[in-house]
Design a protein that fits this description.
The structure holds 2 protein chains of 2 kinds.
Chain A lengths: L5 E2 L4 E2 L3 E6 L3 E8 L2 E4 L1 E2 L2 E2 L2 E2 L2 E3 L5 E3 L1 H4 L9 E2 L15 H6 L3 E4 L5 E5 L2 E3 L1 H19 L7 E6 L5 H13 L3 E7 H8 L7 E9 L4 E9 L2 E10 L4 H20 L3 H6 L1 H18 L4 E8 L4 E8 H25 L9 E5 L6 H11 L12 H13 L7 E2 L7 E4 L5 E5 L7 E7 L9 E7 L9 E9 L11 E7 L5 E7 L7 E6 L5 H13 L1 H31 L5 H17 L5 H14 L1 H16 L8
Parallel strand pairs in A: 3-15, 15-16, 17-22, 19-23
Antiparallel strand pairs in A: 1-2, 3-4, 4-5, 4-8, 6-7, 9-10, 9-11, 12-13, 13-14, 17-18, 18-19, 20-21, 24-25, 24-27, 26-29, 27-28, 28-31, 29-30
Helix pairs in contact in A: 3-4, 3-13, 5-11, 6-8, 6-9, 9-10, 13-14, 13-15, 14-15
Chain B lengths: L33 H4 L10 H15 L9 H22 L1 H11 L13 H16 L5 H24 L10 H23 L1
Classes of the chains: A alpha+beta, B mainly alpha.
């Protein structure tokens, strides 16, 4: 594997920084290698981790593909789309979303969302941390077991301070240092190397599994700036599938007449219909027609429904038109029109649909970028940014702006903004405050984010109390409070009483995030799980190793089987069968044993092959030359 | 490299945020002039293109992304210096903020010392307020008021620009007139956003 680079001077492995697209539906790691970003692969497949956590009956969690596999037969213990809850309180979350959840969601006394499964409660940060751990484990396995401690993680451009902070806390819980949080559309533009433009305007159109985002960016001499964003948190490939599933249901109703409802409500039907819909959708991206095909022999269901491209296009046109209305709104906010856009970048698997590409091209009047895999673009951009952070390049510079204004609640309940939206970050503002009563030693602050006039209409980021002001008459104290928004858009507050030079102490209680103490407590708890995590990671590595060994031994067995003795041949065939079985196991001992058995069983084969090499090498040469 | 103001022999823009020879970050006092940070002499005349170029060039030397693997202290300094750079840029890029800064730095009155507007302006303010209070949102009266306010804003900015070009000596009486014009500008901007709402 070519990933572990050594620093020749002190012979230390070079620190590895990966880029992670932490998505609503899937998460994906990428790394910069040989002068370009590359998605990490296991067994020739991208190391994609479905952002799904399943809690087993013994209370342990499984993550990724195996968790997603449980979502239909055990939805009550399988958590999807946790990104929708990051840094949010219950009142922020869409009521329809909540109603649809098959598990209980409650709120801590501070308004944090928590998810209850099997009598245990999880914060979104903890669940996201589980997904991140799995991503890191896969990435590490893909790099031959290299340690990964640092990452660049992407978030939607519209994420506020609380959501960014929550993402950062999740990484910390996963034992990962976040070197930079990058906006997803900016990452997508980086992946296409658009920073090389002298100047221009970019539209990033991101139609994923369940969400749609559009962002308008400006680029000037390598400097990126998000001008506006818009979107729909409930619009994506899942909606396309649902439309096709309706067609399947129609067929089933016709075929079964009575009794169809019982079949349609069953999990086997739902799973089958979803698969049929997905398959037809993918086929329709290249073929003029495709069949929706569903066979459930136990219910006597055998339906086939032909869908032409024209019919499919007509079916999904309203969805596509909705995305274009969002594009118009985003352009309006940026004071631009569609013809001002110089480049269009497509992100998300649903942008493979030809109608989507055609309508987007028509709307902006130019051919969108589709050279890169739309499911990988964001991760690739994150890896490009990781390279900048490692000191590899100063050509790329992300000069971000804060998406929302930041301010304080004033005495009358109004919001006074200190940092305006679209201010370049990092930025600092120092504001002077004084006391209104004699000998007052503390001042309360309520930090807000948003664009509304009234404090209650904005998002509460947290409250803090300034204490330790020396006693003096009202209005005499001069307290300078400094708000600093860092390059990731995360806020820190410091304060000083200027007339006496006293540093006032501040206790920030985040409204939606975890306090420092809570993160510490969770970290400690997670050390208790460290062994289990280590085992899970080892299993992934071993399975990857088994895959490589299987490929080699099967290929060579074909070549050399006549020269292998019968016993060795039988041993190896058995070991190969056992190893294939172990590839779907999660039990460390079982996987380790299968790998060791396979390793031993391949020895005779290796000997035969070595003999060949030696024979070829010495053929026609005299002894003295060998 | 062409000769340009505030550039080092190597052609880089000089800024107190960075040591030009070593490229190392330097701590700066809070009250350092925004013009100095961008390598400029104080002036009301600013070339927006040149200013943007300076911002990008200096950002390439101070942005926290380029100190991601440095020690905690250096990373914190990069955050502070880049914040100072952004603040300096915003101050200079906006003509009203730029004029406000110049009036203060030349010892002129702040808006707390001198809160009134030019005499000639006051009569008009009363008329405008009447329209603002009585007109129905979206009415043609408001639309024509917005046009008038916009013109006034342009003219007031031009007067400020002229009064500060070249810069008057420190403590000059012209600074008080600029302060009054700035107060008028603030009124105009608030009235404009009401007229357009």
């Amino acid at each position: 594997m070519g990933y572990i680079e050594l620093d020749v001077l002190d012979n230390q492995p070079k620190r590895i920084v990966i880029g992670i697209d932490l998505g609503t539906t899937n998460s994906l790691p990428a790394i910069w290698t040989d002068g370009r970003p590359e998605v990490l692969e296991l067994e020739g497949e991208p190391a994609l981790v479905p952002s799904v956590v399943h809690v087993k009956d013994d209370g342990t969690a499984i993550v990724g593909r195996s968790a997603r596999a449980r979502s239909l037969d055990d939805p009550a213990h399988t958590i999807h789309s946790v990104k929708r809850f990051m840094g949010r309180s219950l009142s922020d979350v869409d009521a329809a979303d909540l109603a649809r959840l098959p598990y209980t969601v409650s709120e801590t006394e501070r308004g944090l969302v928590q998810i209850e499964v099997r009598g245990k409660t999880f914060t979104p940060q903890e669940l996201s941390a589980l997904v991140l751990r799995e991503v890191v484990a896969q990435a590490s396995a893909a790099m031959g077991g290299a340690d990964v401690f640092s990452a660049v993680i992407t978030v939607p451009a519209y994420f506020d301070d609380a959501q960014r902070q929550a993402t950062r806390d999740a990484a910390r819980l996963a034992g990962l240092e976040v070197l930079r949080i990058v906006n997803e559309p900016t990452a997508a533009s980086l992946a296409y190397g658009l920073e090389q433009r002298k100047e221009g305007t970019v539209a990033v159109y991101d139609l994923g599994g369940g969400t749609f985002d559009v962002s308008i960016l400006s680029i000037e001499e390598g400097v990126f700036q998000v001008l506006s964003t818009n979107g729909d948190t409930h619009l994506g490939g899942d909606d396309v599938d649902a439309l096709l599933m309706d067609l399947v249901a129609e067929e089933v109703r016709t075929a079964l007449e009575g009794g169809a409802d019982a079949v349609l409500a069953g999990p086997a039907y739902r799973q089958g219909a979803r698969l049929a819909a997905e398959k037809a959708k993918i086929a329709l991206s290249k073929d003029p027609e495709a069949d929706l095909h569903l066979s459930l022999p136990e219910h006597g269901v055998h339906v086939r429904r032909r869908v032409t491209r024209e019919e499919f296009d007509a079916l999904i046109l309203p969805l596509v038109e909705r995305t274009l209305r969002s594009c118009a709104a985003a352009l309006g906010d940026a004071n631009l029109s569609a013809s001002d856009v110089d480049e269009v970048v497509l992100v998300g698997g649903s942008t493979r649909i030809p109608l989507v590409r055609a309508r987007v091209a028509e709307y902006f009047g130019r051919t969108p970028h589709t050279e890169l895999d739309p499911d990988q673009v964001v991760a690739l951009g994150a890896a490009a940014q990781a390279e900048v952070l490692m000191g590899g390049s100063r050509d790329i510079l992300l000069m971000d702006v804060t998406p929302l204004s930041l301010g304080l609640e004033t005495v009358g309940g109004a919001a006074e903004m200190l940092i305006q939206r679209n201010s370049r970050i990092p930025c600092s503002v120092t504001e002077g405050f004084t006391t209104y009563a004699d000998n007052q030693t503390g001042i309360d602050f309520h930090v807000l984010q948003g664009e509304r006039e009234l404090a209650t209409h904005n998002r509460s980021l947290g409250r803090f109390k300034l204490t330790g002001i020396p006693p003096m008459p009202a209005g005499m104290a001069r307290v300078g409070v400094k708000f600093h928004l860092d390059a990731d858009g995360i806020l820190t507050v410091t304060a000083k009483e200027e007339s006496t030079g006293t540093t006032a102490s501040i206790e920030v209680r985040p409204s939606h995030g975890l306090t420092e103490g809570e993160v510490e407590a969770m970290l400690e708890e997670s050390f208790a799980n460290a062994r289990a995590d280590f085992e899970a990671r080892r299993v992934v590595e071993l399975i990857a190793e088994i895959g490589t060994m299987l490929r080699h031994s099967e290929a060579n067995l074909e070549v050399a089987k006549e020269r292998l003795d019968a016993e060795s041949f039988e041993d190896l065939t058995e070991a190969i069968a056992a190893a294939k079985e172990a590839q779907s196991s999660t039990d460390l001992e079982e996987v380790q044993a299968a790998r060791d058995v396979l390793d031993r069983a391949t020895m005779p084969l290796a000997t035969v092959l070595m003999d060949d090499v030696v024979k070829n090498a010495v053929a026609g040469k005299r002894l003295g030359e060998v | 490299m062409e000769d340009r103001p505030g550039a080092s022999p190597a052609g880089r823009f000089l800024t107190p945020l960075v040591d030009d020879a070593s490229g190392a970050l330097r701590p700066v006092p809070e009250d350092v002039s925004p013009f100095a940070i961008l390598g400029l002499a104080p002036s009301m005349e600013v070339d927006a293109k040149d200013l943007g170029k300076r911002l990008r060039a200096i950002t390439r030397r101070v942005h926290p992304d380029f100190y991601a693997t440095a020690g905690e202290e250096e990373r914190a300094l990069a955050e502070r210096n880049n914040a100072a750079l952004n603040e300096a840029y915003e101050t200079i890029a906006d003509p009203a903020r730029r004029a406000d800064h110049l009036v203060r730095s030349l010892g002129g009155p702040t808006e707390k010392d001198l809160g009134d507007m030019p005499q000639a302006f006051l009569m008009e303010v009363m008329e405008w307020n009447e329209v603002l209070e009585e007109a129905v949102p979206g009415s043609p009266d408001l639309a024509s008021l917005a046009t008038e306010l916009e013109q006034q804003r342009e003219q007031t900015l031009a007067r400020i620009q002229a009064a500060l070009t070249p810069l008057p000596p420190a403590g000059d009486s012209a600074l008080a007139e600029v302060r009054r014009a700035l107060n008028a500008l603030r009124y105009l901007e608030r009235a404009l956003s009401r007229a357009r709402a």
